[in-house]
Structures are given as structure tokens and as C-alpha cells.
Write a structure and sequence with these properties.
- It comes from Bacteroides stercoris.
- Keywords: ATP-binding, Nucleotide-binding, Transcription, Transcription regulation.
- One of its GO terms (molecular function) is sequence-specific DNA binding.
- InterPro entries: AAA+_ATPase, AAA_lid_NorR, Homeodomain-like_sf, HTH_Fis, P-loop_NTPase, Sigma_54_int, Sigma_54_int_dom_ATP-bd_2.
- With 290 residues, the chain is an alpha/beta fold.
- It folds into 3 domains: 11-154, Rossmann fold (3-Layer(aba) Sandwich), CATH 3.40.50.300; 157-231, Helicase, Ruva Protein, domain 3; 233-290, Arc Repressor Mutant, subunit A.
- Helices cover 42% and strands 11% of the residues.
- The protein contains 12 helices and 9 strands.
- A 5-stranded parallel beta sheet has the order 2-3-6-1-7. Strands 4-5 form a two-stranded antiparallel ribbon. The protein has a two-stranded parallel ribbon with strand order 8-9.
- Helix 11 crosses helix 12 (276-285).
- The longest helix is centred in the middle third of the chain and has 19 residues, at 162-180.
- Bound molecules: adenosine-5'-triphosphate.
Length: 290
């Protein structure tokens, strides 16, 4: 990351939900010569497909129903700086073509306008999909893939960074101490062991939330297992106290959580201690259809 940050190269960050993709994108921006210019983040998974072009390139008043005023798009807003496209695999084929053109020609045209605007933006994108597979399936353009992927960063899952788990837990504890005006000093032995053994399906985001809640609940100087009940298997009572062993266990836990919540995905995600987006990704991963 230190090597690529100061350059103007397009970076593709690949990793599961909550592994820190946006955090890294911001670091790349801060370590670049563009640091004082804007950093504009867009979640391509959250914008309706038909509004994506207007979100990126802006539009002129009256160019489509609902375009009541002129709108500045993200490319113009980020001019001189960095644009971060999260979940880039979600863009429609049509918008992918427009995006490629904007990147190649360094010019954009707002929807409904015939004037082109020169832009200078550095692109950092993120995905938790395998875009090479998407290319094979024909849902992602290969030419765009090469353009956005001059350099790839792969974010490991938290469970595969065992040596970093306690470092992150203590970092989030310090953060929560400051935020909540608490003065905890660490985790007791059983709590540390549980942190190390847990599978962290929601990665760093899940850990940050769990540690923050534990910090709030803790009565003493150290966080104990009592405050980390999520780590003792959030769902299946038969597996209480056992860490998730493998993907099959995780799949079973997800199915169990869905059953327990009457197939309400938001509540199931809550019960599992992961965010909804992570749950959606896992449903896809394990081929669970509702
Ligand atoms: N290296 C890090 N140091 C401290 N905090 C971090 C680090 N990486 C990530 N975080 C924190 O973890 C949380 C999740 O990170 P982030 O939002 O970057 O993940 P993400 O991979 O972009 O997630 P998603 O795919 O769901 O959008 C954030 O609150 C972020 O501040």
C-alpha cells in the first residue's frame, strides 16, 4: 500500500465485507499527493441502477423525471482528488461502458447535457466478488477490469490474521474507551482466547462493534467472557461456547438464525452479530435461497 499510494495508479481492493476496504482506500488517498483534495466514496451496491450515471456524472435539470435541479456528479466533486467505488461489481453493463470512457478520456458528460467536462480523478475501487468470474459470466467488462485494476490489494479475512486479532481488539478497545469515557485496560485470559478462536464472519466491523459493546458493559478493568456473549456461538445452543469450526458450521448457524427469526434477514443478521450486507453475501456464498 505504501508503494502504490503516492502514484496515480487505479487500485482494486478485493476482500470480504468488513475487512477494511474503505479504510484502506482512505489511507491510499491520505498517503497520496491528492490528500488535500476531496475523497468521494460511492457505494455502487446502494444506488439504484438507473441513477448510477447521474450519481457519477451529474445531470442537468429536466433530463429525466425527478431531475428537478442540476446535479453535480461524483467525478466533478472529486476533481483533483480520489473517487472510491465500493462494490464496483454491482454496476450495470451500460454504466460500466460510461465509466470506462470517463476514465480513458478523462472527460465526463452530465446526463442530458451536451457539454463535456475535463476531470482529473484517481480511482480506487473495491469488491467482494470474484470479478474474473463475473467477466467469464459476461456481467463485468474485461476492458474496464484492466483499467480499474492497475494494482490489486487483497484484504485477508480477520480469522486468517490470527497474529493481528489481539492487536485489533486492543486498538478498538482504546477507541471505545475514548468514545465512551471508560478506562478499561484489556481482555482477561478467557476473553482473549475466545477472540482468537472466533471465526469473525463480519471481520473488523464486527469486532469493532462487539468490542465497543463489551467496553460499555464491562464493570471491571478487564473485559471478560461475560461481555463477549456473541463469541460463545451466537445461535445454536448446542454449540454454546464452541467457536465456529468451519464453513459448514457457519452455514448451519445462518440457517438456524433465519429459522429463529422467522426468516427476517435484518433480525437474523443482528442475532449473528454481522451486518445485513455481510449476511446477504453469505447467503449468496452458501447458496441459501429464501
Ligand atoms: N486497519 C484498520 N485500523 C483500524 N480500524 C479499521 C482498520 N480497517 C478497518 N477498520 C474499521 O473497521 C470497520 C470496517 O472497515 P471498512 O468499512 O473499511 O470495511 P469494508 O471492507 O469497506 O466493508 P464493506 O465491504 O462492508 O463496505 C470500520 O469501522 C473501519 O474504521
Amino acid at each position: 500500500m505504501n508503494l502504490v499510494s503516492p502514484t496515480n495508479m487505479s487500485v482494486l481492493i478485493n476482500g470480504a465485507s468488513g475487512t477494511g476496504k474503505e479504510y484502506v482506500a482512505q489511507r491510499i488517498h491520505k498517503l497520496s499527493r491528492r490528500a488535500k483534495q476531496p475523497f468521494i466514496a460511492i457505494d455502487c451496491g446502494a444506488i439504484p441502477k438507473e441513477l448510477a450515471a447521474s450519481e457519477f456524472f451529474g445531470h442537468v435539470k429536466g433530463s429525466f423525471t425527478g431531475a428537478l435541479t442540476d446535479k453535480t456528479g461524483a467525478f466533478v466533486a472529486a476533481n483533483g482528488g480520489t473517487i472510491f467505488l465500493d462494490e464496483i461489481g454491482n454496476l450495470s453493463y451500460e454504466v460500466q461502458i460510461q465509466l470506462l470512457r470517463a476514465l480513458q478520456e478523462r472527460k465526463i458528460r452530465p446526463v442530458g447535457s451536451n457539454k463535456e467536462i475535463q476531470v482529473d480523478v484517481r480511482l480506487v475501487s473495491a469488491t467482494n466478488e470474484n470479478l474474473e468470474q463475473a467477466i467469464e459470466k459476461g456481467t463485468f467488462r474485461e476492458d474496464l477490469y484492466h483499467r480499474i485494476n492497475e494494482f490489486t490489494l487483497r484484504m485477508p479475512q480477520l480469522k486468517d490474521r490470527r497474529e493481528d486479532i489481539l492487536l485489533f481488539a486492543n486498538f478498538f478497545l482504546d477507541q471505545a474507551n475514548r468514545e465512551l469515557d471508560k478506562h478499561l485496560i484489556g481482555f482477561d485470559e478467557k476473553a482473549s482466547k475466545a477472540l482468537l478462536e472466533y471465526q469473525w464472519p463480519g471481520n473488523l466491523r464486527q469486532m469493532k462493534n462487539i468490542v465497543r459493546r463489551a467496553t460499555l458493559l464491562a464493570q471491571d478493568k478487564l473485559i471478560t467472557l461475560n461481555e463477549l456473549s456473541e463469541l460463545k456461538s451466537p445461535v445454536a445452543p448446542s454449540a454454546a461456547g464452541m467457536p465456529l469450526r468451519n464453513e459448514e458450521t457457519e452455514k448451519q448457524q445462518i440457517i438456524e438464525a433465519l429459522k429463529q427469526t422467522g426468516y427476517n434477514k435484518s433480525r437474523a443478521a443482528q442475532l449473528l452479530g454481522i451486518d445485513r450486507k455481510t449476511l446477504y453475501n453469505k447467503l449468496k456464498l452458501y447458496g441459501i435461497e429464501l
